[in-house]
Amino acid sequence: MNVIQLKEILRKVRDGVLSPETALEELKVLPFEAVGPSHVDHHRTLRQGIPEVVLAEGKTREEVLQISRTIYSRSGRLLVTRADEEIYRALAIKEARYHPRSRVITAGEEASKRGFVLVMTAGTSDIPVAEEAALTASFLGSRVESVCDVGVAGIHRLFAQRGLLEEANVVVVAAGMEGALPSVVGGITDKVVIGVPTSAGYGTSLGGLTALFSMLNSCVPGIAVVNIDNGFGAGCLAHRINIGRCG
C-alpha cells in the first residue's frame, strides 16, 4: 500500500463512502502479513518510499509465488529479482513482464517518470546487472536511459556520450574486469556516480572482487559503490538521488 492508496481510503471514510469496518479490513495487513514462513512488509512504501521487492534466489518456487501474489494483490505493483521464466509463467499476472537477461519480473511500475538516471556499462557482459539497475529505477518512477559497452578499452566511446552525462541527475556505471569505468566517468562529470562491480571477468577478477576493490579505492572523490552484481541496490539509490534532485 502506498500513500495515495492510504489517503484514498481515509477520504472515503471521511466522506461516508466507506465504513470504518470496511476500511479496517483493508488496513489490517499493515504493517505486515504472514505468508508461510515470510512476513510480507506492506508498510514499507509508507515508511521508506520503496516497496518490498522479492528476491527469488534462495526461496522455493512456491514461496516466491505466494509472496509475489500477496504483494501484487495488495498494491497492484510487483518487482521480483533473480527470477526464472518458470516463475513468471506460474505467476499468471497479465500485466507482468519478464526480462530474461536481468531475470527481473515487473508489474504495475510507476507510469509517470521523473528526472533522468543514466545507466552505463563498461562491456556487453555487464548488461544483465545494469539492466537490473535500470529496471529498478524505472519501476520506482525515474526516467532511465542506458548506454552499453563504453569501457576504457575504447575510451572514445565514452566521450561520445558527454551530452547524456551532462543531462543526467545521477549515473550508474556497471563494470567488471578491473572496474575502471566509474573512476573515468567520475573524473569528467559533476553528477553523482554509483559504481556497480560485476562478476564478469577471468581468473584474477575473483568473481568481481577486483572490480569492487578498484571502485572502493578510486581517487575520484564522491563515488558511491554498491555490492558485486547488486543492480537492484544501485537502482534504488539512483532513484532516490534522482527524485531528490527533482525537488
What does this entry look like structurally?
The protein is an alpha/beta fold. The chain has 2 domains: 31-107, no CATH class; 114-246, Rossmann fold, CATH 3.40.50. Helices cover 41% and strands 20% of the residues. It is built from 11 helices and 11 strands. It has helices at residues 3-14, 20-27, 44-48, 61-75, 85-91, 127-140, 156-159, 162-167, 181-186, 209-216, 231-246; strands at residues 32-35, 38-41, 54-55, 78-81, 97-99, 104-107, 114-121, 142-147, 170-175, 192-197, 224-225. The strands form 3 sheets. It has a 5-stranded parallel β-sheet with strand order 8-7-9-10-11. Strands 3-4-6-5 form a 4-stranded mixed β-sheet. A two-stranded antiparallel ribbon has the order 1-2. The radius of gyration is 20 Å and the shape is globular. 40% of the residues are buried.
What's the short version?
This protein is of the alpha/beta class and 247 residues long. 41% of the residues lie in helices and 20% in strands. It has helices spanning 3-14, 20-27, 44-48, 61-75, 85-91, 127-140, 156-159, 162-167, 181-186, 209-216, 231-246, and strands spanning 32-35, 38-41, 54-55, 78-81, 97-99, 104-107, 114-121, 142-147, 170-175, 192-197, 224-225.
